[in-house]
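Are you able to produce any protein sequence you like plus the matching backbone structure tokens because I've never seen that pairing?
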Amino acid sequence: MRFVSFFLFILFFGCSVKYVRTSDAFKSELRALKRISIVAEPNLAQDSEDLSLVTDIAKNYISHHKEFIVYPSEKKTTCEANPKIQGIFFVKLREIKKGDEIRILIFGKLKSCKTEEELWSALSEKTVSVDSIKNASL
């Protein structure tokens, strides 16, 4: 459960968590899963700098977690491309602008290379104003 609370705290801080799902094999797989790669899933509205930033932020926090070794990720990281990795953490960021607000959705999932099973996934969201007066404290 430390894994779930870790990702919820870091990736979804200040956001409303919509759901968290774990597979039946989550706890047993997590004991053996130590080497992961992080991949930001592309979105048509995002450029490569946004994807790189999302990947770097996730990598920075996860690499400081003592239970995981983060391997460099290629643009299309697969389990077959790097036999050393045991899992892939996918993160997807989506921004929806509506009026003077931006709705930010963050989706994360951890996939095991051994079983190809999705071990953990979560969705979180937050709506922020683009008005600088409302965000003066930021």
Strands lie at 16-22, 35-40, 69-71, 87-98, 101-112, 118-129. DSSP finds three helices and six strands in the chain.
